[in-house]
Every structure is written in C-alpha cells, then in structure tokens.
Amino acid sequence: MNRIAIVTGGAGVPGNAICKSLADQGRHVVSTYREIHFDKARKQ
C-alpha cells in the first residue's frame, strides 16, 4: 500500500524538515504553501 502525506505549510523550515522525514520513511509527500501578506490582512 502506498502511503501519501499532505503537509500544509511544507515550504517553511519546520514543514520542510517534516516533508524530508516523511519522504525518508518512503512516503509520497504533497506539500502546500500559501503566501500571506500580513500588512494587507490587518487592514481588512
């Protein structure tokens, strides 16, 4: 059975380490990333 891991925030330093660890365990890894503009979010 294939194991697939979905890691949200996988582009950051902690997420990258999690993705690498999961891949080293033989899992297929899907990583997501969302850029947040905090200055714009605060004005809304």
Roughly how many Å is the radius of gyration? 14 Å
Provide the spatial order of strands within the biggest beta sheet: 1-2
Report the major sheet.
Answer: 2 strands, parallel
Number of helices: 2
Domains, number: 1
Instruction: Give the quaternary arrangement of the chains.
Output: single chain
Uncertain ranges:
none
Mean pLDDT: 85
The share of residues in extended strands comes to: 15-25%
Euclidean distance between termini CA atoms: 46 Å
How is this structure best described in words?
The chain is of the alpha+beta class and 44 residues long. It has one domain (4-43). Helices cover 41% and strands 23% of the residues. It has two helices and two strands, in the order βαβα. The protein has helices at residues 13-24, 38-43; strands at 4-8, 28-32. Strands 1-2 form a two-stranded parallel sheet. The protein is elongated. The relative contact order is 0.27.
Write the layout of secondary structure elements.
Elements: E1 4-8, H1 13-24, E2 28-32, H2 38-43
Parallel strand pairs: 1-2
Summarize the structure.
The protein has helices spanning 13-24, 38-43; strands at residues 4-8, 28-32. The chain is α+β, with helices and mostly antiparallel strands and 44 residues long.
Write a concise keyword list for the protein shown above.
about 45 residues; alpha+beta
